Structures are given as structure tokens and as C-alpha cells.
Amino acid sequence: MSETGDMGLVVVGAAGRMGQTLIRAIHSIPGARVVGAVERTGSPYLGKDAGELAGIGIINVTIGDDPLPVFAKADGVLDFTVPAATVEFAGYAAQARIAHIIGTTGCSAEDNARIEAAARHATIVKSGNMSLGVNLLAVLVEQAARALDADDFDIEILEMHHKHKVDAPSGTALLLGEAAAAGRGISLAGNDVRSRDGHTGVRKPGTIGFASLRGGSVVGDHSVILAGTGERITLSHHAEDRAIFARGAVKAALWARAKKPGLYSMRDVLGLA
Ligand SMILES: NC(=O)C1=CN([C@@H]2O[C@H](COP(=O)(O)OP(=O)(O)OC[C@H]3O[C@@H](n4cnc5c(N)ncnc54)[C@H](OP(=O)(O)O)[C@@H]3O)[C@@H](O)[C@H]2O)C=CC1
Ligand SMILES: O=C(O)C1=N[C@H](C(=O)O)C[C@H](O)C1
């Protein structure tokens, strides 16, 4: 806990697009405080003040590359980095018995198994999208997929992101795919079609298709299309500002503080489960 009684939070990947947005969000939200900032060894941002880098002025938190001492004095860690780093941070958060909020996408099944193991000791909230809007959209997608029969309506998920994004389909697209699959009473694994190229043959009934676009500065656009014969329903979310993800992550941290170790989702945090 920080000296003020606020929840003391460490931001890992503090110099990244989300890292800087998180520093600004924590600074503006009552009850939370930045107590540490971590970047990878060799980062040009080591030694810089995390607040100054994020554009809010000096907050006396220097960006370092050793997570252990900062985790030891914190209540939680906000992590929007890369899968290999996230798996490592999950182990450290479990050792320190602190909350770990994971926004990192592109984790493999093996990464997820290691995160699940860490959740035996740490309270982990992991979601491909921390915004209220997308998590509400997931509930609506599940309802629509349940209501519209697979014989009559095909489900396709389209996402577009900025040109710097490295994983596809996006974590959000997969989260929405999981919601659609749950509505249909099937598992997404084995029923997903992640890309199409060449002579693909006709669409296999009951599958859930994905398409990914990349370009420019798009923060995150997602559409779930339920395509029937003669009609089409499109459920969409457009993220205009990364602050929506950062605010969700801080909300998740404050929620997780009072929770027992385990692996939770943003739907749990928002009461939409
Ligand atoms: N769940 C959600 O709501 C959201 C999830 N995301 C996800 O968050 C992740 C990050 O996105 P974004 O901020 O755009 O990406 P960035 O590349 O801008 O930021 C990632 C940061 O993590 C740093 N990093 C890499 N390895 C380590 C390490 N071992 N220790 C500490 N820091 C490390 C990177 O450093 P360097 O560049 O020097 O390698 C970089 O500064 C992605 O997976 C993205 O999909 C993004 C937005 C919302
Ligand atoms: O990389 C991003 O930027 C984003 N990643 C998340 C995802 O993979 O869905 C969330 C958001 O769409 C932005």
C-alpha cells in the first residue's frame, strides 16, 4: 500500500502507448497512485520520470528494469506489454501476492496455462479489452448468437487497428468470438476460421470467421456481423481514445484489491458475468 492509503500500482511497459495512457489514468483517478514503472532492459526510457514521459509532469517515479523491488512495495501491477513479459510478471505478482491486471493480447495456450497457474496466488484480471463498451457488446453478441440459429445466420468478426499492432486477430475479436460461440453453445476452438485465401470452398455452417485490417492510427474498431439470407445485423464498437482501456484497467485493479486469488475477467469486474 502507498503511504497515502491509496492503492499503489506499478505500470510495466510504462513507455508504451498503453503504458503512458495508464500513468495518466492512474494520476487522475482517486484511490490509486503510481508507485513504480518498469520497462525492458535496454529500453532508452530507463532512468526517465514516468509522469514526465506521459506528459503530466514529474511524479518522482523513475522507470527501471527490475520488477522485483517495485512489486514488493506495490498492491497491484498493470500490464499491457508482450506475452513473454506478461508470463514472467504473472510469476512475480504471484510471489508478491499482489493483483495483476493483464491487457496484453496474443498470448498462446501455453502462456495462458502459466498465467492460470500464477492465479493460484495472485488475483489476476485478464481481458482482451478493458473497456465498458466492448464488454457490454460481448453480452449483446452472446444474446444475438443464442437467438439466431446457426442454420440461418453466419457470424463474421471484423477488426481494424493501427499499423503498429503485432497480433491478429485482436484480443477483442477473439473475446467477441468466444461470446458468439458461448451463445451458440459451441467452443470457439475448432469452429473458428481465422483467415481465407485462394479457393476456400463454400462457407462451413456454424463456423465463426475473422478478418483483420491494419493501418494508420485506428485505436480499435470491431464489428460482429450476423449475416442471414436477405438481412444482416451488425453490432459494432469504435474505440476513439486509449483512455477507455486505461480507466477499465484501473477500475479492475481497485476491484481486485478485495478479491481472493484467482483468474477473473472484465465481465466479473463490471458485473456483466
Ligand atoms: N486489453 C485491452 O484493453 C488492450 C490491450 N492492448 C494490448 O496491450 C499490449 C501493448 O499495446 P501497446 O501499448 O499498443 O504496445 P507498445 O508496444 O506501445 O507497448 C508495450 C510496451 O511494453 C514494453 N515491453 C516489452 N517487453 C517488456 C518487458 N520485458 N518488460 C517491460 N516492458 C516491456 C515495450 O518496450 P519496447 O517497445 O522497448 O519493446 C513497450 O514499451 C498489446 O498486446 C495490445 O494488444 C492494448 C490496448 C487495450
Ligand atoms: O493493440 C491495440 O492497440 C489494442 N489491442 C487490444 C486487442 O487486441 O483487441 C484492444 C484494443 O482493441 C486495442
What percentage of the residues does DSSP assign to strands (E)?
15-25%
How many structural domains are formed by the residues? 2
Structural class: alpha/beta
> What is the helix tally?
9
Gyration radius over CA:
19 Å
* CATH class label of the largest domain: Alpha Beta
- The share of residues in helices is 25-40%
Mean pLDDT, all residues: 97
Largest sheet, in brief, is:
7 strands, parallel
- Biggest sheet, strands in spatial order? 3-2-1-4-5-6-12
Question: Which architecture name of the largest domain does CATH use?
Answer: 3-Layer(aba) Sandwich
Q: Identify every distinct bound molecule in the structure, by name, code or SMILES.
A: NADPH dihydro-nicotinamide-adenine-dinucleotide phosphate, the ligand O=C(O)C1=N[C@H](C(=O)O)C[C@H](O)C1
Overall shape: it is elongated
Distance between the termini: 29 Å
Write the CATH fold name of the largest domain: Rossmann fold
List segments where confidence is low: pLDDT < 50 over at least 5 consecutive residues: none
Enzyme class: oxidoreductase
Function: Catalyzes the conversion of 4-hydroxy-tetrahydrodipicolinate (HTPA) to tetrahydrodipicolinate.
Binding site for NAD(+): 13-18, 39, 103-105, 127-130
Family: Belongs to the DapB family.
